[in-house]
Amino acid sequence: MTGLRLSDLLEPVMQLAYEAGRLIESELNRPDGPRGSGFKADVDVEIEVLLRQRLKHILNCDFVGEETGCELSGHPFSWVVDPHDGTGDFLNRRPGSAISIGLLHNATPVLGVVYAPVTPRGPDCIAWAEGVPALLRNSRPVRNDLQSAILAPGTAVMVSYGATQKAKPNALLCLPAIFHPMPSIAYRLARVAAGDGVAAVSLYSVSPHDLVAGHALLRAVNGDIWNEKGEPVRYATPQAFTRSLSFCFGGAQAACSELLGRPWRSLKDSGDVP
Questions:
Q1: Which CATH number is associated with domain 156-270?
Q2: How far is residue 174's CA from residue 198's CA, in Å, rounded to a whole number?
Q3: What is the rounded CA–CA span in Å between residue 175 and residue 177?
Q4: Rounded to two decimals, what is the model's pTM?
Q5: Beta bridge pairs of residue 128
Q6: Could you tell me which of 116, 112, 89, 103 has the C-alpha nearest to residue 20?
Q7: Alpha-carbon distance 254 to 261, whole Å?
């Protein structure tokens, strides 16, 4: 690994994400609709098989995938992939599902690409790697810093689409920010990193494959991710890849700390989770 520059990996990973995104677009445009049910689509496995093979050519190292499992040998680098985050919303034809490709180096997220090929704003790719001076959004640099960001009027908290079922209590929990419902925790984290919000929330169970790419993007702008206990999320042990988090908050520390102190569990217990 001598001489490896992570910045040199970013463009080929982005191009691979675009290629995988075309599979999502094609699936969405099938005459009979996308194949699958519940929270699983046929295209999810197809994308991960493609990603696993091609990422190994970009950097041959460990691999953690939602669909095809883990290959953990103790290598200092590991790809961590969710081939299609937000599948349930995708199968209901809601835009905003995303491909999430992250890279860990000694348990630290050092590269992230989150690509949502179908969104209300058009295709949206948010990417960064250590050594790249600024976060990239659709290949253009984005200047954002979450260091001093707080919940304030005019800011947004990104929550799941399910929050629309109980809009009023979700809105109250996010005050004075607005709540913005959308699919995919990976894409929510990426949008926060890009400056569209100050925090992203998931009360659904999440795993590293959901988080690592978005976590890298947040690192680029002085953000982080915390679990339900308010502890920073880390990936230092193999067990971290098999243990899900009950829920998580990602973004600006001040905003997430304030959100963590609010009664989100009451929504989860009632089934109206963001």
A1: 3.40.190.80
A2: 11
A3: 5
A4: 0.94
A5: 112
A6: 116
A7: 11
* Residue in this structure with the two tokens 């937000």, named with its chain if needed: 86
Residue with tokens 């995104």: 21
Does an H or E element contain 102, and which? Answer: strand 98-105
| Per-residue tokens: 92 | 């209901």
pLDDT in tens, 141-159: 999 999 999 999 999 999 9
Amino acid at 150: I
Which ranges constitute the DSSP H helices of the chain? Answer: 6-28, 42-58, 87-91, 167-174, 185-193, 208-220, 253-260, 264-270
Q: What's the first-to-final CA gap in the chain, in angstroms?
A: 41
Is 158:190 a contact under the CB 8 Å cutoff? no
Domain ranges across the chain: 6-142, 156-270
Structure tokens given for 42: 């046929």
Structure tokens that stand for 105 in this block: 């180096």
**Mind giving me the DSSP string for 66-121?**
TTTEEE-S--SEEEEEEEEETHHHHHTT-S--EEEEEEEETTEEEEEEEEESS-TT
Q: Which residue reads 């999502």 in tokens?
A: 24
**Which residues, in sequence order, are bridge partners of residue 62?**
78
Per-residue tokens: 61: 């190292």
| pLDDT: which is higher, 252 or 247 | 252
If you write DSSP's letter for every residue of 123-173 in order, what string do you get? -EEEEEETT-SSEEETTEEE----TT----TT-EEEE-GGGGGGHHHHHHH
Q: Which of 157, 30, 41, 146 is nearest to 88 (CA)?
A: 41
| CATH entry, 6-142, from 3.30.540.10, 2.60.40.60, 3.60.21.10, 3.30.470.20 | 3.30.540.10
Give Cβ neighbours of residue 128 (< 8 Å, ≥ 6 apart).
10, 111, 112, 134, 135, 136, 193, 216, 217, 219, 220
pLDDT in tens, 195-215: 999 999 998 889 899 999 999
Please choose, from the candidates 129, 125, 154, the residue with its C-alpha nearest in 3D space to the C-alpha of residue 18. Answer: 125
